[in-house]
């Protein structure tokens, strides 16, 4: 039994030696000599030391190889992972924006209208699709507020027209009369000339005007008559409508021309980004 | 001449401003500003005159309210008035 075990251990050690040191023939010869001497002298002690040395040398080589490959694989894997995470993040953000828009839906301001321009041309809301509209509701016999607001609208128009080349869609200021009884197309035409050649004035029958005012939540009320004259009380607000015909924002009396122009420019940029 | 004309409007506003300036300088004494009042009334439509008078009253009230000069009784009576 003991003789057999000794023989097996010797054979095993020789096999391992050959396998590891195959490229160099000198070392092989040396090992053969040393193994022979083992048989002659003290086989028990020396045979036990050999297995301890071999695993350590094997480990060293293994470490060297693995570390090189590992670094490469880790770097590439890491980069891929980061890229994938970034892609997911972008997609998620895009979906979130879509959901937000879908969830909010259309605001309850704005809607269809059917009126005539100061040039007596019949128009509906669809005729203005593809344009940014800034709509102001007023009347020509207005004492002070309408003229002030229309001066403001003219200044806003001047500012935005200067940036015409940068805009994806044209900007169109609109004046709607809440006094259809007196404000004929001719009268509106004369009135708007004092402010800007870019303005479009709209009027219509009392029913048509009332219908539009209802959609835009515009309050208007004819005041008491003094002879033939009267003043129409009304909300003092400008409404911004985007090229799709959707209400976007509103600006009250407290806003300056610059503030409004800047806000509209920002909406134009946002709209452009969202429709790429 | 009509309110459609820009020059007419500006003339009206100027007359109004002159009248108001007179009132400011004479602590709202209308007797001393009759000359300006007449010019104001002849330069503006009647409905505008009424509108501007109401506007001035409101602005003065707002100013007094800001500095806390409005009497308690006046405030009470205003609050009790029904909303039109």
UniProtKB/TrEMBL annotation, chain A:
Disulfide bonds: 142-146
Pfam family, one: SCO1-SenC
Any one GO biological process: intracellular copper ion homeostasis
Residues binding Cu cation: 142, 146, 234
InterPro entries named among the record's database cross-references: SCO1/SenC, Synth_of_cyt-c-oxidase_Sco1/2, Thioredoxin-like_sf, Thioredoxin_domain
Entry keywords, A to Z: Chaperone, Copper, Disulfide bond, Membrane, Metal-binding, Mitochondrion, Mitochondrion inner membrane, Transmembrane, Transmembrane helix
A single GO molecular function term of this UniProt record: copper ion binding
Name this polypeptide is given: Thioredoxin domain-containing protein
Compartments, record wording: Mitochondrion inner membrane
Source species taxonomy: Eukaryota, Metazoa, Spiralia, Gnathifera, Rotifera
Family: Belongs to the SCO1/2 family.
Transmembrane segments: 66-88
Ranges of residues in domain Thioredoxin: 104-269
A GO CC term assigned to this protein in UniProt: mitochondrial inner membrane
Subunit structure: Homodimer.
Organism: Rotaria sordida
Its biological purpose: Copper metallochaperone essential for the synthesis and maturation of cytochrome c oxidase subunit II (MT-CO2/COX2) by facilitating the incorporation of copper into the Cu(A) site of MT-CO2/COX2.
Alphabetized CDD domains for the sequence: SCO
UniProtKB/TrEMBL annotation, chain B:
Signal peptide annotation: none
Major subcellular location class: mitochondrion
Pfam (any one): COX6B
Alphabetical GO biological process terms: mitochondrial ATP synthesis coupled electron transport; respiratory chain complex IV assembly
Cellular component annotations (GO), alphabetically ordered: mitochondrion
Tree of life domain: Eukaryota
Keyword terms, alphabetized: Disulfide bond, Mitochondrion
Subcellular location: Mitochondrion
PANTHER family xref list: CYTOCHROME C OXIDASE ASSEMBLY FACTOR 6 HOMOLOG
Protein name: Cytochrome c oxidase assembly factor 6 homolog
């Amino acid at each position: 039994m003991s003789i057999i075990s000794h023989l097996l251990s010797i054979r095993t050690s020789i096999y391992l030696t050959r396998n590891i040191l195959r490229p160099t023939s000198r070392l092989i010869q040396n090992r053969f000599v040393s193994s022979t001497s083992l048989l002659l002298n003290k086989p028990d002690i020396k045979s036990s030391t050999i297995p301890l040395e071999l695993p350590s040398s094997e480990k060293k080589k293994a470490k060297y190889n693995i570390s090189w490959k590992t670094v490469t694989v880790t770097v590439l894997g890491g980069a891929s992972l980061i890229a994938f995470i970034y892609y997911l993040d972008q997609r998620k953000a895009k979906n979130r924006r879509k959901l937000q828009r879908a969830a909010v839906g259309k605001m309850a301001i704005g809607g269809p209208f059917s009126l005539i321009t100061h040039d007596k041309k019949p128009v509906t809301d669809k005729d203005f699709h593809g344009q940014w509209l800034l709509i102001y509701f007023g009347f020509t016999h207005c004492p002070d507020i309408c003229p002030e607001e229309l001066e403001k609208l003219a200044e806003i128009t001047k500012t935005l027209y200067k940036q015409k080349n940068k805009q994806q869609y044209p900007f169109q200021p609109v004046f709607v009369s809440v006094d259809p009884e007196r404000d004929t197309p001719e009268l509106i035409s004369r009135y708007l000339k004092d402010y800007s050649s870019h303005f479009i004035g709209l009027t219509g029958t009392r029913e048509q005007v009332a219908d539009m005012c209802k959609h835009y939540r515009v309050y208007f009320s004819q005041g008491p008559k003094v002879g033939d004259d009267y003043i129409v009380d009304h909300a003092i607000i400008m409404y911004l409508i985007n090229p799709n015909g959707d209400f976007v924002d509103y600006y009250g009396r407290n806003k300056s021309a610059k503030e409004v122009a800047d806000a509209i420019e920002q909406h134009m940029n946002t709209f452009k980004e969202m429709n790429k | 001449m009509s309110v459609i004309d820009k020059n007419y409007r500006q003339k009206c506003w100027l007359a109004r401003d002159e009248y108001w300036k007179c009132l400011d300088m004479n602590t709202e004494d209308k007797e001393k500003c009759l000359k300006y009042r007449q010019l104001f009334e002849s330069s503006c439509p009647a409905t505008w005159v009424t509108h501007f008078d109401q506007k001035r009253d409101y602005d003065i009230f707002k100013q007094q309210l800001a500095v806390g000069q409005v009497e308690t009784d006046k405030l009470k009576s205003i609050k009790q008035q029904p909303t039109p």
